[in-house]
Amino acid sequence: MIWFYLLSGLFLGWSLGANDAANIFGTAVSTRMVKFKAAALTSSIFVILGATIGGAGTTDTLTQLGAINALGGSFTVALASAITVTWMTKVKMPVSTTQAIVGGILGWNWFTGLPTNYTTLTQIVSTWFFSPLIAAIFAIILFKISVRFFAKIHLHLLKIDMITRIGLLTVGAFGAYSLGANNIANVMGIFVSANPFKDLNFGSTINIGGAEQLFFLGALAISAGIYTYSRKVMLTVGNELYKLTPYSALIVVLSVSLVLFMFASQKLSAILITLGLPPIPLVPISSTQAVIGAVIGIGIAKGGKGIRYRVIGKIAVGWIATPVATALLCFLMLFFVQNVFEIPVVSP
Amino acid sequence: MKVLFRKTKELESQIDDYLDIVDRAALIFVQGLKFYFENRKDEFEQRYHDLRAMESKGDFLRRDIENKLYVHTLIPEFRGDVLSLLEHSDTVLNRMAITLLNFSIENPEIPEELWPLYIDLAQAASSAAENMVKAVRTYFRDLSAVRDYINKALFYEKESDKIAEKIKRQIFQKEIELSRKAHLRIFAHHIELIADDAEDVCDRLAIATVKRHE
User: Fold this and answer.
1) Whether complex ipTM tops 0.90
2) Nearest Cβ partner of A159 from B8, B82, B143?
3) What is the topology classification, in CATH, of domain B2-213?
4) What are the chain A neighbours of B83 within 8 Å (beta carbons)?
5) Where are the domains positioned within chain B?
6) Which one of A221, A311, A337, B48 is at 20 to 30 Å from B16 when CA atoms are compared?
């Protein structure tokens, strides 16, 4: 039964892998700078590493928003989120699993009558606004610096091509790690409070925590999404959503990876605290919206021509529509799960 | 990774070798014509054969470069432009070889007073080709310098037009048979076409450079 409950989370993980891996490797694959096999293998390995090693920070934030303490509840929240993501993808909205899962948790809080932590909610929502903005700023700075640098050193076109290829693969690996660390909370975070896994001890030195096992499982689902479906999405992202040169794509991926990493790294946050600076909130963000922010940044760096400002409006609609739709759907589904199927969705 | 580095390096030097061939061919072309007018036929023939050998080597190199660019899917967004530049540079090389071939076969009797003009025309066409090669070379390494070389190449192309016109006018003012006039005119036209082909490469290069800036 436990495995059945986890299925909705794994489904959400699969759709995250299918969709969001394309944000990291889309242009690289569609422009044939990186082969799909290499992209899939690299992103799978690094998503798993990122999720297992660095996934705790953003999960804590989601748990603060609503600690779903029954597997039936976690199952329903994840399923409602997955359905919303699939539906929003169909109507071509730049959807985010992050906004869906937050909507789902709010729906659960609403249904169970448990209070919502508004400080955490404000923190999360402001991050949605800031993440594309920061990605755009990173993209502008990185693009301007790198263009000046390359203009000075007079590298051969073929060398630039090779550097871009290696860059796309290594930055893509960093991006996949950050995606795993930042977004695993969306997939498995809601199962942490009702985690069925026990800590595993191998001798006295090796200890694998229950949460890590859960994250590993979620990361495997993301990998499955990457291998089974992301190729199609990568080609779509690369050709339709935005048209970038491989070099611009490298800057976009680097900017997005830095933003994902920034909002996922507990170490970075700790360093800021020791320096007397305010810590960065560890919040799962949307890689799609960060990508759009970075692409707009590239557009601005190139003089602001050809930017489709309507896309910004679409992001804003996504910020509101996704969580609201998921919250409503989740509320309805929780009602049915509890009253029709008689499955507990909250522990007393 | 090492293989990628090695292949890139190898291809870079192949492109340089190819452009060296076009560049040297332009010098040999002028040298050959000078020997023709100095009536040093053996040396002229030798230059013609050198040019043919360079043309074959150039063709082989160009095909190999094109093949490698496709097989290793290198510079995907600029590959079409690069291939077009190399292929049209090859047209310049071929035109020089064909022009010397025509001199070798048809042995035109050019009046002595027109020799300096023909040599000037050959030098202008050769300079257009040389600057075209420099422009293509900088396209790979230093985009900011491409425009300077294109401007120089276009200047020499205009010069060649003027010289060719002058030659043609002088030919048709002479008291010689019309068939000979036509024969002499066609040789000026052959040389002029070398500069026109170089101009064509420069036009393509100007667009390719704008695309790189995007």
Assistant:
1) no
2) B8
3) Methane Monooxygenase Hydroxylase; Chain G, domain 1 (1.20.58)
4) none
5) 2-213
6) B48
